[in-house]
UniProtKB/TrEMBL annotation:
Identification of the protein by name: DUF427 domain-containing protein
Taxonomic lineage: Bacteria, Pseudomonadati, Pseudomonadota, Alphaproteobacteria, Rhodobacterales
Record Pfam families: NTP_transf_9
Protein species of origin: Pelagivirga sediminicola
Domain named DUF427: residues: 14-104
Length: 113
């Protein structure tokens, strides 16, 4: 199995989509997975869920379980399958349950402020 560590992400983290801040948290988690860049997971309560629409898309990770996806609706466009969460993660990574992570790039930024 992949070596995964989950720790508290120090400081305050924000997620911006289409230039607008859709989440800010002092309770984010950092998931570090062997061979991959660390990923910040935001508590769902710290995300403006009104901007996220559930997607039919899902993926399966042997180490984490089945991920459900959300599209982000901004003023100018919909960013498909931009966020994901594990509603029922594998027991080893249970800390990320109820948290969302985001695909970063030109349209989405996750930053420590």
């Amino acid at each position: 199995m992949t070596d995964i560590t989950i720790s508290e992400a120090a400081g305050t983290w924000t997620v911006r989509a289409g230039g607008a801040v859709i989440g800010e948290s002092r309770n984010a988690l950092e998931l570090a997975e062997e061979g991959r860049a660390p990923v910040i997971y935001f508590p769902r309560a710290d995300i403006a869920m009104a901007f996220l629409d559930p997607s039919a898309h899902s993926t399966v990770c042997p180490a984490k379980g089945t991920a459900s996806y959300f599209s982000i609706v901004t003023k100018s466009r919909t960013i498909e399958n931009a966020a994901w969460c594990y509603e029922a993660p594998n027991p080893e990574v249970d800390r990320i349950k109820g948290h969302l992570a985001f695909h970063t790039g030109d349209l989405i930024a996750v930053e420590r402020v």
